[in-house]
């Protein structure tokens, strides 16, 4: 396994301090069928249930219950792969920046792996999440906003391994397991649609590469907030809006892998839509009525599906709504 540049194809080892190519291109992962991520560290990650349920206007859907993963979000999948590979390579110190769920997952796996972890986070993080990350013994650096946290972590990454959930392809490698699980739970079928809350595109890219390996793609419908819509704006050639919405995990003004995200949506014959804070809140409450408490970002998948299938949905379509994170920490 090694990294290679998406633009100039230059190769880099997995333990390189560099997190992007000299030419400015982002890394992709080269992995052949004989390569496996080592299994050294576990914090109880699971195959999450896929709950068949229905909502009045759209009928039957499947809720993929990723909020049940350790640390309360699907990011545990990425952190599992990333930290296991780093542990295997003997890396004993990492830096990371995140708004919450990724930092939580990476800090937790790093703690279990005995890897020293510095986390750069924006002030906006909920006090619940902050306490959660602290409990893993991570060194916390609070910065004014995401941009400032990003700048600080890139400075620190000059001499410490950058375990980024955006730059490091090992993280996406872990998310791929979600695609395999959905496929298996549907009885070896590709679903027609997956509605994916999208900010940095972590879940979307992981799902895309997973289904690509399986051999067929569902249509990916990326769901963004009306208040922060860079993927929607690029896809539809509309005006970019960059405000704060209640879907904090996808309040990403400038997704670093935007081109790759657009490519995945186009190749899947998917689409992008936006939802309002009111629609997100209503969806969160509708999921709550099923006895499930998710964060506003996770409710974007249902809010998006309700909007997309306004005139109804064919009964035979398998539609997956990933519940990305728990409401307990938001
Ligand atoms: Zn390059």
UniProtKB/TrEMBL annotation:
GO biological process, one term: L-serine catabolic process
Cofactor(s) annotated in UniProt: pyridoxal 5'-phosphate
EC category name: lyase
Listed InterPro entries: Ser/Thr_Dehydratase (IPR050147), Ser/Thr_deHydtase_PyrdxlP-BS (IPR000634), TrpB-like_PALP (IPR001926), TrpB-like_PALP_sf (IPR036052)
Tryptophan synthase beta chain-like PALP domain span: 42-325
EC id: 4.2.3.1
Keyword annotations of the record: Lyase, Pyridoxal phosphate
Listed GO MF terms: L-serine ammonia-lyase activity; pyridoxal phosphate binding; threonine deaminase activity; threonine synthase activity
Protein known as: Threonine synthase
Biological source species: Pectinatus brassicae
């Amino acid at each position: 396994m090694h990294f290679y540049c998406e633009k100039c194809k230059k190769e880099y080892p997995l333990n390189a301090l560099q997190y992007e190519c000299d030419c400015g291109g982002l890394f992709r992962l080269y992995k052949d069928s004989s390569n496996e991520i080592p299994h050294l560290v576990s914090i109880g990650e699971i195959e999450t249930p896929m709950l068949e349920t229905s909502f009045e206007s759209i009928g039957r859907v499947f809720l993929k219950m990723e909020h049940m993963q350790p640390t309360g979000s699907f990011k545990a999948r990425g952190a599992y792969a990333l930290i296991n590979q780093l542990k295997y390579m003997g890396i004993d110190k990492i830096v990371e920046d995140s708004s919450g769920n990724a930092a939580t997952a990476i800090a937790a796996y790093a703690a279990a792996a005995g890897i020293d972890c510095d986390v750069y986070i924006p002030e906006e993080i909920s006090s619940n999440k902050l306490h959660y990350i602290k409990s893993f013994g991570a060194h916390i650096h609070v910065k004014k906003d995401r941009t400032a946290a990003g700048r600080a972590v890139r400075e620190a990454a000059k001499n410490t391994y950058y375990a980024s959930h955006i730059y490091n392809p090992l993280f996406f490698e872990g998310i791929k397991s979600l695609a395999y699980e959905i496929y298996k739970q549907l009885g070896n079928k590709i679903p027609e649609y997956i509605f994916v809350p999208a900010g940095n595109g972590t879940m979307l890219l992981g799902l895309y590469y997973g289904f690509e390996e399986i051999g067929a793609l569902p249509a990916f419908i990326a769901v963004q907030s009306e208040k922060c819509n860079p993927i929607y704006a690029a896809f539809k050639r509309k005006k970019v809006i960059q405000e704060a919405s209640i879907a904090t995990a996808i309040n990403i003004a400038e997704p670093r892998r935007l081109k790759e995200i657009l490519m995945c949506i186009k190749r899947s014959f998917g689409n992008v839509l936006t939802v309002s804070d009111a629609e997100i809140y209503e969806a969160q409450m509708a999921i709550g009525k099923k006895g499930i408490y998710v964060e506003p970002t996770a409710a974007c998948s249902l809010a998006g599906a309700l909007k997309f299938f306004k005139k109804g949905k064919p009964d035979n379509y398998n539609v997956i709504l990933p519940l990305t994170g728990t409401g307990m920490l938001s």
